Amino acid sequence: MNTSTPLMVRKLLVDLSQGLPRHWLAGKPFRSQYFNALSMSFPVGEQEFIDAVRAAAATLPADADHIALQATIEDFVGQEATHRRIHDLYNEQLEKQGLVNHWQHWVRNQIELGRRRNVPALSRLAVTAAFEHCTAVLADITLHHPEILQGADPMLAMLWRWHAVEETEHKAVAFDLYRTLGGSHGRRVRWYMYAMWRFTTMATGQTINNLRHDRMLFNAATWLDAASFFFGRYGLFWLTVGPIFRYIKRDFHPWQHDNRELATAWLKANADHYSVVRGPTEA
Ligand SMILES: [Fe+2]
Ligand SMILES: [Fe+2]
Questions:
Q1: Among the four residues 109, 165, 185, 201, which has the most C-beta atoms within 10 Å?
Q2: Of the bound ligands, which one is closest to the alpha carbon of residue 87?
């Protein structure tokens, strides 16, 4: 698969207006609040991915060699825009539960800082490619190890898996655009280190804040769950450390890990739960 492959834009058929269980992931506060924190980052974060990719794509030559790439970029935008909308609805419910989204402000401040410092479009794209790799790694784990969402509220399990499927489908779009525009390995790795640091600190900060508002921060069960979530069987740390560091290899490409069958299998099994907005009729 390469970036010229068209992507399908889907509408997930879920109704988030009825509210969400507070500890929707197997009744466990830590992992519920960790996933909630990630959801809080998406509306602003994914808008930045869209803006960064579009700004960089504007510098592509308008010739026949790049028509397919431009079309796939618009599909990428369509998928990320749908994710933003769904996570906005999800986050509205979190707000009703008393949680406060700080992550969105941290991202906005960073974007503003980047603008003031005139960060070039190619570096902004490198940051997007970096975050897209992080989400693709988390998406792969979510699809590959269904145990991670075992005991989850069925609607939220479906939402996270649908998002994971589409992150898998478009995992190489920002990366291939970066490469097509001649982005260097050094710049890619430097911004990746920055993105990893930002992701770790913001995910930690927002999860702790969520647990504080949930009145579960000073609770032994919360931290036992955190230890098992990161370091137990199917622990996130063990599952992510290899794929996360593979990105710094000079010859890395997202499709060296070909996991498209995970996405295809989920789409086939859950065809009743989404409608097709546009794109190829077969996933
Ligand atoms: Fe997304
Ligand atoms: Fe994405």
A1: 165
A2: 1
How many domains are there within the chain?
1
Query: pLDDT for 225-275, tens place per residue?
Result: 999 999 998 899 999 999 999 999 999 999 999 999 999 999 999 999 999
Closest ligand to residue 137's CA: 2
How many angstroms from the chain centroid is the CA of residue 15? 21
Torsion, Cα 213 139 3 259, to 10 degrees, reads 180
Phi-psi label, residue 182: left if phi above 0, alpha if psi -120 to 50, beta otherwise: left
Q: Please report whether residue 279 resides in a domain.
A: no
Give 11 Cα–ligand 1 centroid separation in angstroms: 13
In a domain, 122, yes or no: yes
Question: Which H or E run includes 100?
Answer: none
| Range(s) of the domain holding residue 207 | 17-104+114-274
CA of 218 to the centre of ligand 1 (A): 32
Among the bound ligands, the one closest to the CA of 86? 1
Separation of 166 CA from ligand 1 center, angstroms? 7
Residue 277 corresponds to which tokens in the numbers above? 């907005």
Please give the C-alpha separations between residue 170 and each of 1, 102, 117, 164, in angstroms, as whole numbers.
Answer: 10, 27, 29, 10
In a domain, 119, yes or no: yes
